[in-house]
Specification:
The complex is a heterodimer of chains A (101) and B (221).
Chain A (H helix, E strand, L loop, with lengths): L4 H21 L3 H26 L3 H31 L13
Helix pairs in contact in A: 1-2, 2-3
Chain B lengths: L1 H21 L3 H21 L3 H26 L11 H25 L16 H8 L4 H22 L10 E3 L2 E5 H4 L10 E4 L2 H8 L4 H6 L2
Helix pairs in contact in B: 1-2, 2-3
Classes of the chains: A mainly alpha (101), B mainly alpha (221).
């Protein structure tokens, strides 16, 4: 039995929901950041499976662009995390509830 | 055969994703997340997208996760300290999320049943050549916008992570010795007097500057 499109979509939904639950549950900024990366990857899996299903390269192109955006997000996000840690000495998001460095 | 491979890699991905959320130590979460990326790359190979699979391993598991692990080690926060009880309202949220998850998976599995992939999986859809030719012709504008975004990210990361307001711009620091401009040490000197004063240790420089020694700051924890 060959894998069906719905299998990949179901896997993507499961991964995305785990990522959402992680963002809600976790309190460490870096752990929340990694859960966001997990959600991005779930969406990427959907893109690639639809690209393979419709035999169209556009989906894979946008996966490429999503990866670039994720890399930019990693650089800026980790810079923000370091700046917050310098002033607050903590990675807990509850300690950074004031929108001020 | 392919179904077995799918079940193997999907199970690995879900297990590692659960471990990302379940681990207290962010370093273990990062290692689990690398497992998710690797298994997703294997799934991309099964979906006839070898270029995306390679980029997934190189960019995600290589670059981004190395950056994350580096920041975790740099900040050196191991203790996910005592959990204050926010579980009270998180438990209903978790139940709702689980219900949504089960509902959407059931919906997908029931309604999208005609999902057989096209048989011609040996086509050149996922090859590097087709992706490159499309990327530089039809999708040139998103490509250029992405490059501008990367430039903004570089500048933003440098601006955010730079340490500011520490020393006077006249301070001279070279390896092996601490050379300080004399108007830092003695504020009665005029501002453009940059005669160097040499100190041998960080402590001595900190004492001259009247700031807390970094050794003392590291001794605190």
């Amino acid at each position: 039995m060959e894998p069906q499109l719905s299998w990949y979509l179901a896997l993507s939904a499961v991964l995305f929901t785990i990522g959402v639950a992680g963002v809600i549950i976790k309190r460490n900024v870096i752990a929340m950041f990694m859960c966001i990366e997990l959600m991005l990857n779930a969406v990427n899996l959907t893109f690639v499976s639809f690209a393979s299903f419709f035999q169209d390269v556009t989906g894979q192109l946008f996966v490429f662009i999503v990866m670039t955006v994720a890399a930019a997000e990693a650089a800026v996000g980790l810079g923000i995390i370091i700046a917050i840690f310098r002033t607050r000495e903590s990675l807990d998001v509850d300690d950074a509830s004031i929108l001020k460095l | 055969m392919l179904a077995l491979l799918f079940i193997l890699f999907a199970g690995l991905a879900i297990g590692c994703a659960l471990a990302v959320v379940a681990q207290r130590n962010p370093l273990y979460s990062a290692i689990s997340l690398i497992g998710v990326f690797i298994s997703l790359a294997c799934l991309y190979v099964m979906l006839a997208a070898p270029f995306i699979a390679a980029v997934q391993v190189i960019v995600y598991a290589g670059a981004i996760m190395v950056l994350v692990v580096f920041v975790i080690l740099l900040l050196n926060v191991e203790h996910d300290d005592t959990r204050r009880t926010r579980i009270g309202f998180l438990l209903p949220a978790a139940l709702v999320l689980a219900a949504v998850l089960i509902a959407e998976v059931a919906f997908i599995l029931v309604s999208v049943d005609r999902g057989s992939f096209p048989a011609s999986s040996a086509s050149s859809i996922g090859s590097t050549a087709s992706i490159g030719s499309q990327l530089f012709t039809s999708y040139l504008l998103p490509f250029e916008i992405t490059s501008i975004l990367l430039l903004m990210a570089i500048v933003g990361a440098m601006t955010l992570a730079r340490r500011t307001k520490e020393l006077s711009p006249n301070a001279r620091v070279i390896p092996g010795a601490q050379l300080l401009a004399s108007n830092i040490v003695d504020s009665s000197k005029p501002l453009d007097d940059t005669t160097a004063i040499e100190t041998d240790t960080v402590e001595e420089a900190a004492r001259l500057l009247g700031i807390n020694s970094p050794r003392d700051a590291s001794k605190r924890d």
